[in-house]
Amino acid sequence: MRKGLVVIIILILLIAGGYYYYTSLLRLKFDLSGARVASVGLTGAVIIFELRISNPNPIPVFLPSAEFDIFVNGEYLGRGTTTSLTIAPNSDRVLEVPISFSYAGLLQSVVELIKGKGTVDIQISGQIRIVIVNIPFSISQRVSLR
Question: Which CATH number is 2-143's, of 3.40.47.10, 2.60.40.10, 1.20.58.480, 1.10.287.90?
Answer without folding.
Answer: 2.60.40.10
